[in-house]
UniProtKB/TrEMBL annotation:
It comes from the Eukaryota. Pfam families: PTR2. One of its GO terms (molecular function) is transmembrane transporter activity. The lineage of its organism: Eukaryota, Viridiplantae, Streptophyta, Embryophyta, Tracheophyta. Signal peptide: none annotated. GO terms for cellular component: membrane. It is found in: Membrane. It is a multi-pass membrane protein. It comes from Lupinus albus (White lupine). Keywords: Membrane, Transmembrane, Transmembrane helix. PANTHER family: OLIGOPEPTIDE TRANSPORTER-RELATED. This is Putative proton-dependent oligopeptide transporter family, major facilitator superfamily. Belongs to the major facilitator superfamily. Proton-dependent oligopeptide transporter (POT/PTR) (TC 2.A.17) family.
Amino acid sequence: MCRGKIFFFSSHFAGNLRCLDGATVVSDVENKHGDYSNRWRLCTVTQVEELKILIRMFPVWATGIIFSAVNVQTTSLFVVQGRMMDTSIGSFRIPPASLISFNVISIVFWVPVYDRIIVPIARKITSKERGFSELQRMGIGLFISVMSISAAAIVEITRLKLANKLDLVDKPVAVPLNILWQVPQNFLMGAAEVFTIVGQLEFFYDQSPDAMRSLCSALLYLSTSLGNYLSSAIITLVTHLTTQGGNPGWIPNNLNEGRLDQFFWLITALSVLNMLVYIVAAKRYKNKTSS
């Protein structure tokens, strides 16, 4: 009976990870002593299948860490970049940190556009109730995040060229390039959040074991936290490596003599690699189905 249950659940849920099925089989030790209470030696079929679901979700969840490391740039290096740009519009000066408002505006814009326009069009093409699956939605968001950080790199290249042209490389002053050039990168990152983060929430809730939905939904916030730590670690490592031999490094106090664009391209490369890993993980992922 036990082995029949194992086959039934495995065919519907896992299709692999069958090595874990042995945890549900009563061994000679349990039969001899008649003690089946040790959960480290004997598990129920449901517990094993829930573990399989979590293991299959792990690669998809892990790719969210790099996305969070990219997303955190909107409140860190995007602001640092904006402080070295022209923040004036007539007599009004825009605080560099306030450019993140375009990230929020983008979210407010894309949420109804996605629900009212994109989903109905996608529904006709894919014949899916939600238009896109959660995995497809996350993949689109990862691609948009690559575009966002690439836009930031292009703006920085333009800013550095202007600083060199005006002989401002050795001067820690703002370059006469209007800060509104940062709007596209912030707007794109807002769109990436709408696709990726909402997709992650739906994915973790729908695909998690029924008894662990609240816990699995919290995985999103765990990936966000790890992404913040990863971003700090990358900045620390890059600063250490690029300041060897007395060089100013990629991210010095005076950005005019730095290479912040190179850092943005590095993050872009990591994002592209992360997206490729995600595509592989998404293709290999098997949706949870009801018995």
